[in-house]
Amino acid sequence: MALRVAVIGSGPAGIYTAEALVKQSAEAVQVDVLERLPTPYGLVRYGVAPDHTSIKSIANYLRKVLELPQVRFLGGVTLGTHVSVEDLLGLYDAVVYCTGAMVDRKLGIPGEDLPGSVAATDFVNWYCGHPDVDPGRFTLDSSEIAVIGVGNVAVDVVRVLAKTADELRATDVPHDVLQRLEESQVKAIHMVGRRGPEHAKFTLKELRELGDLANADVCVRPDEAVVLGGDFPRQVQGNIKVLQSWAAREPVGHPRRLDVRFWLRPVEILGTERVEGLKLERTRLSEEGRVVGTGEFETLNVGMVLRSVGYQSVPLPGVPFSEQTMTVPNVAGRVREREYVAGWLKRGPTGVIGTNKSDAAETVRTLLADLQGRERVHGGPVEALLAERGVHPVTYEEWLAIEAAETELAKTLGRGERVKIVGLEAMLRACRP
Ligand SMILES: Cc1cc2nc3c(=O)[nH]c(=O)nc-3n(C[C@H](O)[C@H](O)[C@H](O)COP(=O)(O)OP(=O)(O)OC[C@H]3O[C@@H](n4cnc5c(N)ncnc54)[C@H](O)[C@@H]3O)c2cc1C
Ligand SMILES: NC(=O)c1ccc[n+]([C@@H]2O[C@H](COP(=O)([O-])OP(=O)(O)OC[C@H]3O[C@@H](n4cnc5c(N)ncnc54)[C@H](OP(=O)(O)O)[C@@H]3O)[C@@H](O)[C@H]2O)c1
């Protein structure tokens, strides 16, 4: 009898886990990938920026895994709502949790909950057409916007705000979102780092793209671009060089302006009914290397604040979770007997898509070693249990029908290769006419 494994989540970690199980297992294996959305690929579909088409094309690799005869995709199935850990352990030999990191980290400053103070997670979900966020959710009616954080997500968000709607027309951005971007009143974007250029988390390739924006001047203050010391990794040296070259540039009068700022930490989001400003404090590093305030303040007159300070995982019902690391405690992927974890839920929200491949391979090595020689669980198909609960999973073929409808929509609208269909009902209508 084949080894039967349930993988929860169909992002890169889930799909690389399925692939590793098929590749590494010496005996027959059957993998069910259970996903809460009707669509696979996790953040590759709902995170990677729409204009980064070459990165998005990694989905073409992931789809080959879902098409393996040993692997099945079951969409619209949520662990914790439709199935429990106990259900799964009664049906499968092992379960691998790969549910990623879905929510934003908090800043913990006054004004954070004011209307107009927005988590990057929500903003990214919006422009990526995630069914959790209504396409009408954001109106870009402020002329100035601050983006807090200097990681790659902040760079994505800034780029989408700085580009014209025309520059994004050929992407898969939902049509309602494109219309909102067309009506954008944004003139100035401030991207704010609480430490120096040498500490920024963005990568060189992504940073460089900001310097080539056709619709925005990129500005760096010479005093904030100064970096003391010099023994930095190549990637950091590259960032510093680019930022210093921008500090020497004169704006050429593009319609939008991007100010990349350093050594400023947010202390309060100002406003009564909605965001009216962002109060920042100049910082320095203490002798122990901690960010400390200098008592010198500055206010940005922004009408929107986008908080891009990292993602975090949420606990899954019945699965151990560390509130300290916000991950599932594990040893080389093992959580408990027959329970495993991979991806962002295992190691936190860092690393690129490829990092999840080696991570998943480690988890699968642990799993296969643990289960070798162990008696199989003789469980039936999960569909029977789900049907009793009125849940009919979206099959891989149905997902392909959603994809085809997105291609058709793009044709009808005279836009690129695909336009995202938003909303669970619309997606289900597309695959179950
Ligand atoms: C905005 C953004 C842009 C990025 N851009 C890039 C990039 O350009 N290049 C790059 O290399 N990396 C990029 N990354 C990093 C990359 O996306 C991650 O490394 C990767 O997606 C993590 O994989 P994962 O499978 O752990 O999580 P995810 O991709 O988040 O997948 C988790 C999956 O689990 C599902 N799920 C959640 N809860 C449940 C549940 N209870 N039951 C069933 N299913 C559930 C989710 O719907 C999702 O499909 C980006 C990250 C972000 C946040
Ligand atoms: N194109 C790509 O390859 C791509 C695109 C998007 C995302 N990703 C990857 O996805 C992962 C997540 O990216 P991310 O940008 O969300 O996270 P990140 O890389 O961890 O960056 C988070 C940023 O927020 C700042 N920050 C954290 N807490 C803060 C606070 N309280 N006040 C002010 N600033 C604060 C951090 O500054 P400190 O350093 O001072 O803490 C850092 O600048 C990364 O590994 C990233 O590389 C890759």
Ligands (ions, cofactors included): flavin-adenine dinucleotide, NADP nicotinamide-adenine-dinucleotide phosphate
Q: What is the number of helical segments per DSSP (H or I, 4+ residues)?
A: 16
Report the end-to-end length measured between terminal Cα atoms: 37 Å
Main sheet record: 6 strands, mixed
Strand order of the largest sheet: 3-2-1-4-17-16
Q: What's the total count of β strands?
A: 17
C-alpha geometry? globular
The overall pLDDT, averaged over residues, is 97
Q: What do these coordinates show?
A:
This protein is an alpha/beta fold and 433 residues long. It is 33% helix and 20% strand. The mean pLDDT is 97. The longest helix is centred in the last third of the chain and has 18 residues, at 396-413. It starts with a strand and ends with a helix. Helix 7 packs parallel to helix 10. The protein is globular, with a radius of gyration of 23 Å. It has 16 helices and 17 strands. The strands form 4 sheets. Strands 3-2-1-4-17-16 form a 6-stranded mixed beta sheet, sandwiched between helices. The protein has a 6-stranded parallel beta sheet with strand order 6-14-7-8-10-9. Strands 11-12-13 form a 3-stranded antiparallel beta sheet, with no helix packed on it. The structure holds flavin-adenine dinucleotide and NADP nicotinamide-adenine-dinucleotide phosphate. Flavin-adenine dinucleotide is lined by residues 8-14, 34-37, 42-43, 47-48, 52, 55, 78-80, 98-100, 102, 124, 153, 156, 311, 316, 343-344, 351-353, 356.
